[in-house]
Amino acid sequence: MAELKRRVAVLISGRGSNLGALIEAARHPAYPAELALVLSNRADAAGLERARAAGIPTAVVESRPFGRDRAGFEAAMGARLAEARIELIALAGFMRVLTEDFVTAWSGRMLNIHPSLLPAFPGLDTHARAIAAGVRLHGCTVHFVTPGVDEGPVIAQSAVPVLPGDDEAALAARVLAEEHRLYPAALAWAASGAARLEGGRAVVEATMAEGALANPLPGLPALPTEMP
Ligand code: GRF
To answer: Which residue, among 120, 123, 118, has the nearest Cα to 133 in the 3D structure?
Structure first.
């Protein structure tokens, strides 16, 4: 019988709180994706423990020994993805820049979450830069991955206010809570075909209404909005 759920690999390098949100969401029987693999480029990534605790297969492909051989690293990673019959990749705090070849091979099938309202503040240290720039709104973005870092077509965004007196940690926490709501919804849309990459643009049939974040697909039980 054909598998109804898309087989997703979550790629991480660190703490894995977004992974935790995806794990919680994927527990719902109606969620259209199965987390079939959690792959880390660091053996010490704390997120690996979350995956193991949830009974999800894990793989470690250390990037460090490959040095500048990014294609070699990706070939090793690709072998693990193929073994696990992965159909969709969700980058969640994966701190390696991928080659154009790898990104092209996964075009329309790889998502990333970024802690800013792209195209504002691509790259690192987004919260400190938002505070320094004096913006009143900040947030997070889930996008299809294209070769330009943090440049891919936007699937979904969530905004939060920047409040007087915010420091980097306070703002980061406010954004992270939204990341944990947004990513499970956006991954559900991509896995169900409601979000697609077409002609270089993201076509999204779902809506960004508040209810859509809680219930990203008709018939899908409300996703938890509070994450540990
Ligand atoms: C998140 O802020 C995400 O937007 C960025 O990296 C961070 C990962 O955090 N890409 P976590 O590992 O999911 O807790």
So the answer is: 120
Report if pTM > 0.85.
Answer: yes
- List of residues 6+ apart from 228 with CB closer than 8 A: 20
* Local structure of 144: helix, strand or coil: strand
Mutate to test the pocket of ligand 1, among 176, 180, 181, 182 (most ligand atoms within 8 A of CB): 176
Q: How far apart are CA 189 and CA 207, in angstroms?
A: 10
Residue 105: closest CA among 116, 89, 119, 91? 89
Q: Is 52 helix (H, G, I), strand (E, B) or coil?
A: helix
Whether 140 and 115 have beta carbons less than 8 Å apart is answered as: yes
Whole-angstrom distance, CA of residue 34 vs CA of residue 133: 39
Q: Pick from 77, 121, 67: which is nearest to 101 by CA? A: 77
Residue ranges per structural domain of the chain: 6-227
Span 155-165, pLDDT tens digits: 999 999 999 99
- Specify the residue for token string 């087989």: 7
CATH of domain 6-227: 3.40.50.170
Q: Whose CA is nearest to atom 7 of ligand 1?
A: 93
pLDDT of residue 228: 37
pLDDT tens digits, 30-59:
899 999 999 999 999 999 999 999 999 999
Alpha-carbon span 122 to 224, nearest angstrom: 28
| Residue 17 CB less than 6 A away from ligand 1 | yes
